[in-house]
Design a protein that fits this description.
The protein is an alpha/beta fold. The chain has a single domain (3-138), classed as Transcription Regulator spoIIAA. Helices cover 28% and strands 34% of the residues. It has 3 helices and 7 strands. Strands 1-2-3-4-5-6-7 form a 7-stranded mixed beta sheet. The chain is globular and about 45 Å long. Residues 57-145 form the STAS domain. InterPro entries: MlaB-like_STAS (IPR058548), STAS_dom (IPR002645), STAS_dom_sf (IPR036513). This is STAS domain-containing protein. Pfam families: STAS_2.
């Protein structure tokens, strides 16, 4: 079951509680006409081959456009997942636009994870998203799968 929380764009602000993003929760960003432009959700995933004692992987999924107007919601979800501890994955398989603000967020999340001794990875990047990542991260600092 997925709980949903819709909200409208508000100049990059996220109007959800600090502890909102738990497993099975999704938040939807709509524009002024009510069209959904981004959905962000979180779930726990068991990592294969890591044994029963391994921490589950927190998977934060984005679906839609990641630009300067919408990236605040993903930032909120990723920071909360990182603050909860354990490895975090950002699933980009359903991202239709990946702008500079999204790339900046990926580096920010990576730095935060590295400082905390956590693993952060990106997965499912489409060809367009990979091109942006390759341009801004030619040394492949960001872990991708």
């Amino acid at each position: 079951m997925v709980a949903e929380h819709p909200y409208r764009l508000r100049l990059g602000r996220v109007d959800v509680p600090d502890d909102f993003f738990r497993d099975g929760v999704a938040a939807t960003v709509t524009d002024d006409s009510g069209t959904v432009v981004l959905v962000v959700s979180r779930r726990a995933e068991t990592r294969n081959g890591d044994g029963a004692s391994a921490a589950p992987l927190a998977v934060v999924t984005a679906e839609g456009d990641l630009d300067r107007d919408t990236v605040a919601l993903l930032r909120h979800a990723l920071i909360q997942a990182l603050d909860d501890g354990g490895p975090v994955c950002c699933d980009l398989a359903r991202v239709t636009f990946f702008g500079a603000a999204a790339a900046n967020l990926a580096f920010h999340a990576h730095a935060r994870a590295t400082t905390a001794g956590q693993q952060f990875l990106l997965r499912g990047a489409t060809a367009t998203t990979r091109r942006v990542l390759d341009a801004v991260d030619p040394s492949r600092i960001l872990q991708r799968s």
